[in-house]
Please model this.
Amino acid sequence: MIKVLIVDDHPIVRAGLKQILVEAPDIVVAGEASNGEEAVSQVLENEFQVVLLDISMPGRSGLEVLSQLKSLKPSLSILILSTYPEEQYAVRALKSGASGYLTKESLPEELIAAIRKVSGGGKYVSAALAEKLAFDLSDDRTKPLHETLSDREYQVLCMIASGKTVKQIGEELALSVKTISTYRRRILDKMKMKNNAELTHFAISQGLMN
Model:
């Protein structure tokens, strides 16, 4: 039996996922968590084969939680299930140790297939993503600027580029305006840019926006 932990801050999403997975006789939802802290606690106290992990959660992002879970239990299979399109986060997530990446628009049967594959130690990615991963690995010299950002900085970059204000980003991530402003300044410094317009233009030109 494949024991799954669902990590998502929306109760309705967790309920929907449980409804999907109950149709699979070899999969059981053995735990739920609404944030990173709960996820870490559950993983330390229980044995799961697969963690279904959202990226966008209040407080610590899913990518930060992913790194911590992999450091605690390297053999744990973590499948990212996100509203963000592949081109935004998939490569970063896989390089951080995720076993696969699915968007929440995926079909139920695809989710079940992905859980079965990663539970056996495999990787689950789309054909387009597999091609991008192969290209990135073969040519590190042309590493794009956004690859220099931390996971949280990258998340803030995408949110700025989508038109959100510093205040809106702070509210969504449960962080202060001062903290988000600090992240914004670091992003601008690292990418040698002057303002949000330049960041937005870069994100669009790199295909980071949906």
